[in-house]
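hiii, so i know i said id send this last week but things got crazy w the move. better late than never?? heres the sequnce for the chain we talked about at the cafe, plus the structure i predicted for it. fair warning i was half asleep when i ran it
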Amino acid sequence: MSNDPLYDTIGTTYAVTRRTEPRIAAQVWAALGAARTVLNVGAGTGSYEPPDREVTAVEPSAVMRAQRPAEAARCVAAFAESLPFEDQSFDAAMAFATVHHWQDPIAGLLEMQRVARRVVVFTCDTTEQNWRRRFWLTRDYLPELAASPVGLASEFARVIGARMEPVLIPWDCVDGFFEAYWRRPEAYLDENVRRGISMWTRVGPDVEQRAVRSLRDDLASGKWAERNHELLDLEAAELGLRLLIA
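okay and structure toks below
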């Protein structure tokens, strides 16, 4: 899903833990409008590629490309910052949970605008007031990430003239991205789940194991439930995820 060589190391489990969440996919596909030809930039294993349109994928990681299903769209080995296509070659270009891994996100977004008439980007926004503190995983267990910019949706939106839509995360989200298990904390104790989330690798093994131990203890003692009881009745959560549409 990115230009980041990290995915050549951690990407081997992505086809298992990172799957298309249909409720989020419906929002992404609606944002594509009437586009018939779609470029998926940082396409990874092919999640969120619309099945009813002509899709071309771009993915630089050989590990990720190798996990694409046989029936998936054709995939080109290239980087977002230098897309090998003519101007306005596609009706739309999309990028899902990948922009924050690009070497030069602004250049990549401008390239998407060059090759497509519409741009749809799923990312997150760290510029909204204390949004990372609202997520218990960063607030209570990974403060290192709370101080680290991961997505700058507001800045990206200004650059490409996009409007922003909030993306709610259903409690039973089947796509195992970082915030997906907000109501299922025990999932973060599963190493296979964590290996499908780049943030765990980025913080390093010492921080990861400290966070996992602390979360395990709080689940066993009931402290997590006491601190987060208001989440248990929510069907979906707003944790700063955004869809940019330009």
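btw The beta strands are 37-41, 54-58, 74-76, 92-96, 119-124, 163-166, 169-170, 236-237, 241-245. thought thatd interest u
miss u guys!!
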